[in-house]
Structure formats: C-alpha cells, structure tokens
Amino acid sequence: MKLLAAILLALPVFGDDGLDPAKLLAPPSDTWPTYNGDYSGRRYSKLSEINQSNVEQLTVAWVATLRTAAIKSTPLVVNGIMYMTTPDNVWALDARNGRTIWHYFRESQGDHIGQRGVGMYKDWLYFETPDCHLISLNAKDGTVRWDIELADPKLGYFATMAPLVIKDHVLVGVSGDVTDIPGFLESIDPATGKLQWRWYSEPKPGEPGSETWPKGTDAITHGGGMTWITGTYDPKLNLTYWGTGNPQPVLNGDQRQGDNLYTCSIVALDPDTGKLKWYFQPSPHDTHDWDAAQTPILFEDMKNGVERKLIAQANRNGYFFVMDRSTGEHILTKPFIATNWAQGIDSHGQPRPKKEKEPKPDGALVSPGSDGATNWMAPSYDPGSGLYFISARRLWSVFYMTADSKPEGWAGRDRNLWAQSVIEGIDPKTGDIRWQHEIGDGEGAAGILTTAGKLLFTQDNSDNLLALDPGTGKTLWHVPIGGRMVASPMTFELEGRQYLITAIQNSIFAWAIPRKN
Amino acid sequence: MKLSGAVLLLAPLAFSQPKPPAFDMAAVERGRVQFKSSCGFCHADDATGNRAPDLIRSALLSHDVNGDMLAPVIKNGRPEKDMPAFSTLSDKTIADMVAFLHKQAYDAMHSAGVPNDYPLAKLLTGNAADGKAYFNGAGGCSGCHSPIGDLAGVAKRYGPVALQQRFLYPSRGVKITATVTLRDGRKMEGVVVHGDEFEIAITGADGWYHSWKRSEVNVVIHDPMAAHQALMEKYTDKDMHDLFAYLETLQ
Fold it and tell me: What is the number of structural domains in chain A?
C-alpha cells in the first residue's frame, strides 16, 4: 500500500503545471480546485465511497490544529496538497495526514473578520489580506511572487474573499462597510498582477442604472456594494455571476433615494471584459444590511421538454429567487422564512420594501435582522434530489436609525432579539420548502456539502456535526464535536479513499471510512 | 432546542477596532466652533458637505495624521478649486479643527451601534394608555406579569433602550425547565442545562446534573419565552411603542 501511495503521490494529476485552469471546467474527483469545488457553486461532490449505508462508520482520519483564529475558509486540494487559510495565514498541508508542508504569515492592519480561501492557477496561489492586498504565492513553498494593493485600506477597504480563476483571469472582490466607499470586482493577470478590468458596483453618472441614485449629489460615488463572496461561472455562456453588497450608508437611505443599482444585486459579467450582461436586484433600496453576496448556484431543469439554464439564490433578505441565467429573466420569488418588511412582489419579481420598516429613531421590529435570514454560509444544490439547501434563520430584530444629522457609515444598528436556525431543502421548481431540519436557537454559521453518497453534511447550533438525508432532512449520523463550525465542509478523494473535511474553530477534522493499515 | 441562543446571538461586530483613540474633547469642541465659523458655510457645520465636498468621506482626512495633510490645505487653500486660504489661523486653532474633523470621522466609522444611554426622548413615541390596554388585552402580558408585582418599578431598573429590548425578549435570567419521563415511569424535573436533537440534560431537584439520550426518555420543555416568541409575529410597531410608553410609567 505504501509503495502504491508513494507512486500515486509522485504523479501529479495535473502534470508539472500545478493547476491548469482548463481543468477547472471538469474537476477530477481527487481535487477541490476552487472555493466552491467547481464553477457551478453547487458544493455537490460525485464521490460516493461515504454513503448512506456506511456513514455511521465514519471515523477521524487525521486532525490538524492550527495556531490561529477560527477557520472560516474552504480549503483547496490539488495534487494531494491542501491549502487552508485564516486572515494573514496560508498553510499547505499534506492532505493524507494534515501535516504542515509550509506556512505563510504576513501580519497586517485592517479588519480580520474572516478569510474565505485561496484561488489557484498553475503553480500559483492568490490570497487576499485584511489590508486589502492580493498576494501571489508559489504553491510549492509559499514564497511571495508579487504583492499588490487592491484598494486603499485607509479609506476602509479590506479583503476576505477567495479569488476565482477563469481562464487567464483572477477575479477578486473587496470588502468594507464602515465607511461610504464604492464596491468593485476586478480581474487580475495571473502572471503579472496587472489589472485587466474593473467593474464598479455603481454605474458612472449618466450610465444606465445611474437614474436609481439622486442626481447632483455624491451618493452614487459612495454607494457601497462590496463583492464579499466568490461568484460562479458558466463556461458555455461565458458569464460569471456575482452577488453585490449593501448600499452605503447602511441603515439610512434618505440621502440615496432610489433603488441604488447595482447594490444588493446579482450581476452577470463577461469575464474577459467585465461588461455587465444582465442584473437582478433582490433588495431594492436596502436599509437593513441585506447584501446579496450569498452564492448564486447554477443548475438546469426541464420544462416542456426543453432544458432551462437557471441560477438561484437564497438571499439574506429572506426570499429565494430563481432566474434564467442566460438572460436574467425572472422566474420565481418565494420567502423561505416569515418576513415582515416587504409590501409585496412587483412585476419584476422584486420584493418592494415598506417605508415603515426602515430603521427608525424609536425602533422598527423587523424579520429578518441584519445578520440575515441566511448569510455567507455556503448553500448547496444536489442534482440527485433536485433540491437547494440552505442554512436559514428566523431572526427578529429592532432596527434603530441613530444619526442626528446627515447619515454616514452605518448611521444606526439593529439589536437582535431572538433567533432560531433551520436547515431547509427547497424545491427550486416551485420555491416550496420540501423539508426543514431544526438546528436550535441562535444563528447557524455552518455551510452545507452534498454528495453522490446521498448525504448532506453540516452542523447544528449545539456543536453536533450532522449527516442528513438530502431527500428528507432526516439525521443519519452525528458527532458532538466540541466546537463550532464557522466554515463549510468539503470532500475529496486521495489514493482511492474519500475524505470529508470539517473545520471546527481552529482545528481541521478529516473523516473517512475505516481502513486496515 | 431552545438553548444557547443568548450566546449565539452575540454576533461579532462588523469592524473590530483595537482601542478607541483618546480625543482631547476640549480641543474637539473648540474646533467645532471654529470649523463652523470658518468652513461651515461651504462644507456644512458638521463637515458632511454642502457646496464644497463632504470631508468625513474624503481621502485627505482618511490619510491625515495629526494635521500633516489637512493643515497645509487649510492654511494655503486650494485656489484651483476656489477654496480660499485661511493663512491667519494659528497652528493651535487649526489643530483644534483637525481634532474636530477626526472625531467626526471616527463617529461616522463607529456608528454601527445603539449606545446603552440612547435617549428616552427618541424612544418615547407611543401612547401609554394604548399600551396599558394592550398589556391587559390583546398582548396577553397580564397573564404572566403585573405592574404592581414583578414589573413594579421596572423602568427604574433598566435604561430606556435596555427596557425596550427586555420586554420584547428577556433572554437573560430566564430559566427553561423540563419534565423528563424515564422508561420506568419515573419523572424528573429541573432547569435545562443542555438540550438538542440528541440529548437532554437538567439540574435535578437533588442538585446533580442528569442527562439522557432523547430517544430513551419523553421530554416536555417548559419555556416561559414561548409567549414572547409568539408575539413577534403579532406586534405592530405601534403596539411596541405603546407598550414601551406604558412600561416607562412603571417608575
């Protein structure tokens, strides 16, 4: 066995060139080469060695405890090496035993709220930092090839997301929501670090969309719309799909009357040029911090014998949206928790906000609270059951608008009252909730993975790792793991063995079916 | 299943600032007055912009350290943008204005919060008589609470914003209990220590911790918060403000 393993490890799946971006179109089962595992955002693995018949035998294959803050990222696995991150840190680990191969550390100023992972192109990794830099590392040894500033951290920019590699483009987004700064997505040359294009979340005055901002003020140039979370990509349509963040100031929209495009929107861009093909805005004129950064998942269905290319998002505002991903044509809007902020769904499929549920000096009782009916935790789509899975919350909050003069920054905040979390299986054909699995009081923070083993992996709010039946939501396996998962599970195959990876606080647990040594 | 909510609700704030800078508030106040008189006409009294740009959002202020960038602009003006020079202002006066601008920017960057001393006058918009009627009627509050019993003097015990939070959802100090029926028919009661899909744990009448697999016992949870949870979907904002106005009368 050992000899075989050595041979297998010595033969990199991708040859001498690390990760060929063409391989991202159909990732082999021994890799997880991008934030969501593939371009579709489904977080569905075709691996089935771990399945409903043997999940109860799952055992710990290895544990790696990193000296760091809580892990909030999804690692990549390429050629038997795992690349894991936290703010300021990247580790390369041996995916068979969790041992560190190299560790990169770069201390920085800026918001250390989280780090979602790296992107990879050939032998190179791409890593974003709290002071809003993008760093290219040599995947072999963690040495720095180049280091560029994406945006000025003094203005309030920081960076958390995992870059998305598409052909010869590294797509990078930025974060920041305490100052009134514009969001953007940009494409970087993987070799040189040079800017290829930049798309701003707000149009320039006079361009289409600018009519959704007040004229003659600076609101549009300070409008927010951060690109917090890695997007998805359809290679045939050559469109990449991204969710944008909330407008600024966050909780008060008086100085930015209008729908505030393209904040709180799902946008389809040409990855070669950054040109906008279509958009859909789930939260017009948001005043509740409900960004639209949740992963927009790509999938297909059949209607009247014709295949439809679809995109769906379970949005932080409590509604589930389905669109045609070629055109952006709206197909479906349906709430997945009880909300009280919308007066109805308009002819475009957008929930229109009630003025009286905007934050008020004396408070407005709103569901969901600003933490959202869901948030950055990864959703999943399982082609087996045809269901879309989310970690959802019933969350009630009082929103206060505290500014006495011109609102800037947040201009207020909500105070959470009560939250209850639930894993939901949604039928994307109808928007109906097929099943709900209660995971307890408080806010769930774990993402979801589904597999061809007919398993759904996540965590409840009592620190139990869970495997559920994706068809019914019933529990098939659980382990009290003694810590929180504030990351999303992933899986890969190495030397013919399937591993399930769960990051619990600052430890990585690798699970597998027992084998004789 | 209704536990640990209080802990999990403490979501991290969006921005973690290591330590708030120490502002010389006397200088800030002098700077406020001076800024209003010299600059307010164009930049607005609070520096958020009028005919001239919003300074709170400006890159110049973001990059300034103790006036190293702002002071020369104030002194020399920006003739190309029609900003006059304020060459007669003393260095100390300019330092005061710089302190004021940094305090304004700091406040904007840290406006994601509701202070515990949030003023009563802002919250007190409801009608106390309507609130009393709701308390005794539609809200069903009088079923568990009394203005001369547990709520006597409640407005003295809590600041205004805390009182509003607590009457809506008093998550702290509320004890959830459970009755656990064992397979042999014995019943045990106590305060719930932990409950999830798989296990239930209580502190029994004997003072000891007891836990069981949920599949082995029958569990009935007594959650005094259930009525508060049910009200969430029923309250209008007027109900909330009226009830608050009524509770504020319980001094």
Answer: 1
Chain A with chain B: Cβ pairs closer than 8 A:
172
Q: Does B1 touch chain A (CB under 8 A)?
A: yes
Radius of gyration of chain B (CA): 28
Residue B182 belongs to some domain of the structure:
yes
Q: Taking the alpha carbons of A173, A174, A180, A181 in that order, is the dihedral positive or negative?
A: negative
Angstroms from A421 CA to nearest CA on chain B: 10
CA of A273, closest CA in chain B: separation in Å? 29
CATH number at residue A459: 2.40.10
Question: Is A465 part of a structural domain of the chain?
Answer: yes
Question: pLDDT tens for residues B138-153?
Answer: 999 999 999 999 999 9
Which B-chain residues 126-165 have CB contacts (< 8 A) with chain A?
126, 161, 164-165
Comparing CB atoms, the residue among A443, A464, A475 nearest residue B9 is A443
Q: Contacts of residue A358 in chain B, CB cutoff 8 Å?
A: none
Report CB contact under 8 Å: B4, A441.
Answer: yes
Give the whole-angstrom CA distance, residue A241 versus residue A41: 10
Structural domain including B165 reads 120-172+227-248
The reply to whether B143 and B215 lie within a common domain is no
In a domain? residue A334: no
What pLDDT is stored for residue A517 in this prediction? 66
B30 — pLDDT class (breaks 50, 70, 90): very high
Report pLDDT for A5: 46
Mean of pLDDT values over A499-515: 97
B237-248 vs B160-168: helix crossing angle, rounded to 10: 120
Q: Which domain, by its residues, includes A491?
A: 47-70+448-517
Residues B162, B44 within the same domain: no
State the total domains in chain B: 3
Instruction: Pick from A108, A132, A365 the residue to mutate for testing the B interface (most B CBs within 10 Å).
Output: A365
Query: What is the DSSP code string of A299-324?
Result: EEEEETTEEEEEEEEE-TTSEEEEEE
∠ CA A72-A74-A77 to the nearest 5 degrees? 150
**Amino acid at position B47, single letter:** A
Contact assignment for B114 to A360 by CB distance below 8 Å: no
Q: Is residue B5's pLDDT more than 50?
A: no
For residue A394, pLDDT over 90 is answered with yes
Query: Which pLDDT belongs to residue A18?
Result: 86
- pLDDT per residue as tens digits for the range A186-195: 999 999 999 9
Q: A443: nearest CA in chain B?
A: B8
Q: Is B87 on the interface with A (CB under 8 A)?
A: no
Q: Which of B70, B237, B244 has the most A C-beta neighbours within 10 Å, making it the best mutation to test the interface with A? A: B237
B70 touches chain A (CB under 8 A): no
Taking alpha carbons only, the member of A212, A316, A321 closest to residue A262 is A212
Q: Is residue A510 part of a domain?
A: yes
Instruction: Return the CATH number at B90.
Output: 1.10.760.10
Q: What is the pLDDT of residue B19?
A: 64
Residue B167 included in any domain? yes
Residues linked to residue A365 through DSSP beta bridges, in sequence order: A398
- In a domain, residue B8? The reply is no
Q: Which residues of A touch B229 (CB under 8 A)?
A: 418
| Domain C-terminal end among B109, B133, B152 | B109
Q: How many CB atoms lie within 10 A of CB B194?
A: 13
Per-residue pLDDT tens digits for A435-446: 999 999 999 999
Active-site pick, A289, A382, A460, A469: A289
Q: How many helices (H) and strands (E) does chain A have?
A: 1, 36
Cα angle value A270/A271/A272 (rounded, 5°): 90
Do B163 and B197 have their domain in common? no
In a domain, A437, yes or no: no
B238/A contact by beta carbon, under 8 A: no
- How far is Cα B214 from Cα A476, in angstroms, rounded to an integer? 15
ipTM field = 0.91
pLDDT of residue A75: 98
Task: Respond yes or no: is residue A427 known to be catalytic.
Answer: no
DSSP state of A499: E
Q: Are B243 and B152 found together in one domain?
A: yes
8 Å CB contact of A177 and B14 = yes
**Which residues 198-227 on chain B approach chain A with CB closer than 8 angstroms?**
198, 225
Is residue B74 pLDDT above 60, yes or no? yes
A66-79: per-residue pLDDT in tens? 999 999 999 999 99
